[in-house]
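User: Teach me something about this protein's shape.
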Amino acid sequence: MYTTNASRGLPRHRSRHLGERYTRWALRALVATLVLALLWLVLAFHLNGQWMFALLFLVLGASMAVVFTRRSLMSHRYIFPAVAGLGVFVIFPLLYTIGISFSNYSSSNLLSEERVRAQLMSRSYQEEGAAFPFSLYREGELVRLYLEAEASSELDEAMAGQRRFVTAPLNLANEEARTIDVQPAEAPPQAAPLAMREVIAARGALQALTLVTPEGVELRMAGMRSFAPMLDRYQARDDGSLYDRRDDRVLTPDQETGFFVTDDGATITPGWPVAVGLDNYTRIVADPAIRGPFVQIFVWTFAFAGLTVLFTLIVGFVLASLLQWEQLRGKAIYRTLLILPYAVPAFISILIFKGMFNQHFGEVNMILDSLFGIRPEWFTDPWLARTMLLIVNTWLGYPYMLLLCMGLIQSIPKDLYEASAVDGGGPVTNLLKITLPLILKPLTPLLIACFAFNFNNFVLIALLTGGNPDILGASTPAGTTDLLVSYTYRIAFQDAGQNFGLAAAIATLIFLLVAGMSLLNLRLSKVKV
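Assistant: First, the predicted structure itself:
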């Protein structure tokens, strides 16, 4: 005899099976919806010419469909979101950056060739000697526009017999783009024209107007006082080149540089990205204006990261050793005070130090001036700026080393110190023979991780010095306090040319260095890779 469900009168095992079936169908519907959404993104990116993003979402959608529809891959469903996130937010940006490093992608070579061609074809120019000075005349709530060519104007043949035009009454409160037909006029209206300040007030509506003459000539606003025929500047040719009507020259697409090039070799912006092979990496090595600053910043980056690890370790270890001193009272208070810098957000501490090191009004220079009569130029002298960075970064990093050293020192058996005391060992012997050897081995992987973090410490440089003072003679934005990561950022986003390709090449080198340090860290941690 079955035990029935009181609400539906169904056996419990049937009710459970129905619930599981509904759950499976709901899951399948959710997966199908996500797959369809990803396919829609694939189509959208493909239509916009972004084939790399289209390929990304195509792979993501296909893998989702396979994993969630095959029973043999059921165990992979739980880890799929993490793997998908790793692919979308880590692996794909990395591959995309490496791909950009082999191109001339920059603010000058940003659009696709089709969009560059369309942008050039949309350009127009004012026909010389065919301007129509205009006046505005009030008619009730509306305004009539009157145009009359100057006596010396050399009009186009299609307009040679007509020099005056007038529009129907217009509402200039409407600033939307409009095309208005104009009619021949014998004479201007009898009323007084509007003053220039009223013309200026209606400038937005006037600029949105396109006036069409009976002959089909389009007139657009060419200044605050006239309309003029605006002609298409470029004409497409069958061989892919463009003819410049205004300057009477031919523009030829150059697939090596990604620009349209004139007969005399001048390039026309904007351009489009093209593959340049190893040119960006070669520039880093071969161009003296880039190689010199790059090597200087490269050396400083390693020195900054290494010295930061050394100084923070020394300060943290000394303080941790003092806090283990048995005769010291109030250890809890000292621990709290020494760890407080770790609790304050780094950007707040950096901005506070930036004010304290101010060369004119900062507390540091006020104290040094009153004691020694000196006012160091912390932000203009390269070596003083680097010293300031190390001081601030040591302050920010020593609490982390303090916590590590405290934990490792407390894990050392007390019996070793007692045995050392029996043998006549003092504090220095205990430090060199017991404490340091026992904490350095487990501390080494953490020191390497700290080195890798400071190797890319962008926030400190950006907020404190901004990379300044600049390196003289550099062809790219480069400063004496820049790290490789901040140098890359300035090339990509602060340089006038925004050379994303060169920045991506440097970012790829940074990745290889950090990846090497990570592998070293794993080796030292005895983790098999």
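Now, about its shape. The chain has 17 helices and 13 strands. Residues 29 and 456 are 44 Å apart (CA to CA). If you'd like, I can walk through any region in more detail.
User: That's plenty for now, thanks!
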